[in-house]
Amino acid sequence: MIFSITKLNKKRTFFYAGIVILAIITVVSSNYLDADNQAKVDRTNAMQVTRQVASESALQVSAPDFFTEYRLERDKVRSERSDLIRDIIKNAKTDDMRQKAQESVLKMALDKQRESEMENLIKARGFADALVFVRENSVSAVVKTPTLSREEVIQVADAISRVTGVKPEDITISAKP
After folding, report:
1. pTM for this structure?
2. 101-109, long-range: CB within 8 Å, 24+ apart, which pairs?
3. What's the CA dihedral at 98, 104, 108, 114 to 10 degrees?
4. What is the pLDDT of residues 103-122, one digit of tens each?
5. Whole-number Å distance between alpha carbons of 106 and 19
6. CATH 3.40.190.150, applies to 64-176
7. Domain ranges of the chain
8. Reading across the β-sheet that carries 171-176, which strands appear in turn?
9. Whole-number Å distance between alpha carbons of 75 and 69
10. In whole numbers, what is the pLDDT of the chain averaged over residues?
């Protein structure tokens, strides 16, 4: 009888051990599968975010904004002109040359201020962006919009005319999307 009880206990032990091992395998595998599914979801979301950010930055790099690009170029040209005029002021042989160079610096600063003021006035009228170019007797403006109505052209010309004193017929306004 001792022999049969020992055999029975061994069978029960193996049976219970098998159930425990099966339960452990079930728990571990279900946790592993849940973690794997969660990781897949997280990777998918991360991939989507990465793709969106990459495509937005690629758009900005491949298609720079005309208005921003022009402002940078305009500032670069003004800076070069300003450096040249400063050199003329430093090395001027006559007071007349020095005075003309100083007047040129003042005019350039005034034009820059007026262009900025007009661009801000145009934006205040609801346009996304604007560029203004002041010439001797005329002004040109480019407004960021697909089209301009007659009323909008009149509004923009009025703002420019008030700041510069240039007649409306000497103001050119165009639209650029």
Report:
1. 0.60
2. 108/78, 108/81, 108/82
3. 120
4. 999 999 999 999 999 999 99
5. 93
6. no
7. 1-63, 64-176
8. 130-134, 139-144, 171-176
9. 10
10. 75
